[in-house]
Amino acid sequence: MEFPTESIKNVVEAFSKLPGIGKKTALRLTLHLMQKSSIEVDNFANALLNLHKNTFRCKKCNHLSDQEICNICLDTKRDNKILCVVEEVGDLLAIEKTGYFKGKYHVLGGKISPLEGIGPNQLSISKLLERIQNEDIQEIIMALSTTQEGETTAFYLSKEIQSINPDIVISLIAKGIPSGASLEFIDELTLSKSLLYRSQYSTLNPQKF
């Protein structure tokens, strides 16, 4: 792809390094910025710079925050006894969007993947185990991906947690068929998981979807 100037080429290459953005989309974004005023472009550039300067990892749960301890950890209305373990901040935000979960979180920063050279030491696992030792946590919810790496991470964490506190409840988020889906279009793995993790139906207390 030919570029009119070296500056445009550099910006396109920078954009194209972002996930889900190809060279065509990167060029479109670059040309869009060219149509903006210098003040708007400066504000955009400053926002990116401040993103790294003023955003930190929460020292307690590893969530993103503009202070040492994030707002979720500081929220006294949340249940300190239930801890939801997620892989990435995006997973936490997705759960928060539901408005259902009222406990606390712990962000691992990824999942165990030997093929990619990611082991327990590269994740925020030691901090999680430290929290289990020092806090009155009664349940750990494993909200991890259903990939092989996610399953491996959940198994490893379960063994480590039980070695510290065998009485702690370890649960997994339900795996199965999404609401409104037809069985004939569901893949075999998802369908098998939905059968394996089936729940009892009751007319006295029907499930809400």
Features:
single chain, 209 residues, alpha/beta, Helicase, Ruva Protein, domain 3, Dna Topoisomerase Vi A Subunit, Chain: A, domain 2, 2 domains, 8 helices
Q: What would you say this structure looks like, in words?
A:
By secondary structure, the chain is α/β, with parallel strands linked by helices. The chain has two domains: 6-54, Helicase, Ruva Protein, domain 3, CATH 1.10.8; 57-173, Dna Topoisomerase Vi A Subunit, Chain: A, domain 2, CATH 3.40.1360. Helices cover 43% and strands 12% of the residues. The chain has helices at 6-16, 23-34, 38-53, 71-74, 89-98, 125-134, 148-164, 188-196; strands at residues 56-57, 64-65, 79-86, 103-107, 139-143, 169-172. Strand 5 (139-143), helix 7 and strand 6 form a beta-alpha-beta unit. Helix 1 crosses helix 2 (23-34) and helix 6 packs parallel to helix 7. It is globular. The chain starts with 5 loop residues before the first helix and ends in a 13-residue tail after the last helix.
Brief rundown of the structure:
The strands form 2 sheets. Strands 4-3-5-6 form a 4-stranded parallel β-sheet. It has a two-stranded antiparallel sheet with strand order 1-2. It has 8 helices and 6 strands; from the N terminus they run H-H-H-E-E-H-E-H-E-H-E-H-E-H.
What's the total count of β strands? 6
**Helix- and strand-based class?**
alpha/beta
Number of helices: 8
What CATH calls the topology of the largest domain is Dna Topoisomerase Vi A Subunit, Chain: A, domain 2
Strand content: 5-15%
Uncertain residue ranges: none
| Tally of individual domains | 2
Ends apart, CA distance between termini: 49 Å
CATH class of the largest domain: Alpha Beta
Coarse shape: globular
CATH structural architecture of the largest domain:
3-Layer(aba) Sandwich
Order of helices and strands: HHHEEHEHEHEHEH
Query: Major beta sheet, specifics?
Result: 4 strands, parallel
From the alpha-carbon coordinates, what is the Rg to the nearest angstrom?
Answer: 22 Å
Overall helicity: 40-55%
Mean pLDDT: 90
Q: Give the spatial strand order of the biggest sheet.
A: 4-3-5-6
